[in-house]
Amino acid sequence: MPELPAVQRRSVLGGALAGGALALGMGAAAPASAASPAAVTAAAAPRRRPGQKSMINVAYAPHRTVRVAVIGLGNRGAGMAPGWAAVPGCQVTAVCDIRADRAKRVADALVKAGRPRPAEYGGSADAYARMLRRDDIDLVYIATPWEFHHAQGRASLLAGKHVIVELPIATELDELWDLVDTSERTRRHLMLAENCNYGRNELAMLKMAHEGVFGDVTNGHGGYLHDLRELLFSDTYYTDAWRRRWHTRSTASFYAMHGLAPIAAAMDINRGDRLTTLSATATAPKGLADYRERFVPRGHPSWNETYVNGDLVTCMIETANGRVIRAEHDVSSPRPYSRINTLAGSRGIFEDYAGTSPTGARVYFEPDHSGHSWRDFAPYRKEFDHWLWRKLAEQAEGGGHGGMDYVLQWRTVQLMRAGLVPDIDVYDSAAWCAPVPLSVESLERNGRPVAVPDFTRGSWVNLRPGLDSRATEMPPV
Ligand SMILES: NC(=O)c1ccc[n+]([C@@H]2O[C@H](COP(=O)([O-])OP(=O)(O)OC[C@H]3O[C@@H](n4cnc5c(N)ncnc54)[C@H](O)[C@@H]3O)[C@@H](O)[C@H]2O)c1
């Protein structure tokens, strides 16, 4: 087992001190802004309106039952609806899809699974607005195409509901700020549905980082490398080919959050450190056109499209405490799946997607290891297994994405029922999604660094718990 370095994050910080200054004192490099004079100066945070207050450390009011409404019942929404209904103390009360038949199909499936029938909404692009008038909804889960997330998230907050939005919560900087401000004004939480933050390896990595196994964490790499070409050109998978159409619009890191967010969480971004600058590079867009040439019949609607998004878009992100994160996005090249998940520091390194062991990960930590050869992650994952996985592994087994979908759903409902502070708040969600617009901006400036806004408006310096929560029970039903 690893012998922990003398400097352990929790014992040193005691949970109450300002983490930013202290983390610098712990041996991190100079602030990134000093290392990047070319960075565009940070756009000032918009002023809070009178009465508008931070949502940091704001607990949910306790809910006896969490009543969930789902907007968007395609691959993801239809798949997640039964998961919500399976969590103790959670009921799906309403479902909505612009295609009314999908609402009926999901309602039928819930009834077949022995759940109460949810109300159905559909038939128009704004049917969700009618649904939001209901007073039996506590949480809105949004699983529509990216272009609708901001408007639907905002409308849900304004209707007085808490919101959990699929990736990304919004695609423009002003929209991200708007969701932060609307959450602060309505006093409702909005969070990114980042299931990967609840992955078993990711949570063990986070605990190891916080307990000092890495020494001082200095760098991390993550992303979303998934060969989606067949699905992107399918006529039945993504509704109206919405996801392929994004590749005709701009060159952007659309969806790196699955790998970026766990790294940012392990680095305590917004909880003692923050993302400061981002510079992006993009390769030429070759993959989709090449695939179409070889596999898609002439006359298919895709032949009218021109793909402009670079196949591999890479963001180099610096943090206030001198760390660096590399976040990658590639969904248009042939390759096996990876979210990269690599974290490293002064005492060692964790690399996921690297081994043949059941955990799929490898490590090297001093003083346990020497000799420059990788070791199995398995004993570390056993020791640092997060309480959520110790508790839920059996129930989550066989569920979506290796069980992490159910862990995300169970924990979200537990936080609301027990009246706890969310693990992932609107500030985390905005920071993790900011690379979508910022990668566009940096690429337009030939890859120059651009400033990442501080959505917390200065509160990032305060250390506070997040996904590294203490074990708590689900209130009895
Ligand atoms: N976290 C994950 O692991 C994960 C996995 C898959 C997809 N996703 C995300 O889930 C979202 C949906 O992806 P998908 O694969 O299910 O796409 P999809 O095309 O299968 O489903 C989208 C659904 O939204 C519906 N819709 C569109 N406009 C609507 C509106 N105005 N009101 C109500 N419904 C509307 C469509 O009819 C469709 O049924 C995306 O944001 C995607 O990135 C996340």
Lay out the secondary structure:
Blueprint: H1 9-13, H2 19-25, H3 32-35, E1 66-71, H4 75-86, E2 90-97, H5 100-112, E3 119-122, H6 127-131, E4 139-142, H7 149-158, E5 162-165, H8 173-186, E6 190-192, H9 200-210, E7 217-225, H10 229-232, H11 242-246, H12 257-266, E8 275-282, H13 287-295, E9 313-319, E10 324-330, E11 342-345, E12 348-351, E13 362-365, E14 375-376, H14 378-384, H15 387-396, H16 404-418, H17 426-433, H18 435-444, E15 450-451
Parallel strand pairs: 1-2, 1-4, 2-3, 4-5, 5-6, 7-10
Antiparallel strand pairs: 7-11, 8-9, 8-15, 9-10, 11-12, 12-13, 13-14
Helix pairs in contact: 4-5, 7-8, 8-17, 9-12, 9-14, 15-16
The protein binds nicotinamide-adenine-dinucleotide (NAD).
Nicotinamide-adenine-dinucleotide (NAD) is lined by residues 71-77, 96-99, 102, 125, 128, 143-146, 148, 166-167, 193, 195, 238-239, 242, 401.
Descriptive report:
This protein is α/β, with parallel strands linked by helices and 477 residues long. The chain folds into two domains: 13-44 and 196-389 and 421-459, Dihydrodipicolinate Reductase, domain 2; 66-194, NAD(P)-binding Rossmann-like Domain (Rossmann fold, 3-Layer(aba) Sandwich). It is 33% helix and 16% strand. Strand 11 (342-345) and strand 12 form a beta hairpin. Helix 7 (149-158) packs parallel to helix 8 (173-186) and helix 8 (173-186) runs antiparallel to helix 17 (426-433). The chain is globular and about 60 Å long. Mean pLDDT is 92; it is low at 1-41. Bound molecules: nicotinamide-adenine-dinucleotide. Residues 71-77, 96-99, 102, 125, 128, 143-146, 148, 166-167, 193, 195, 238-239, 242, 401 line the site of nicotinamide-adenine-dinucleotide. Keywords: Glycosidase, Hydrolase, NAD, Signal.
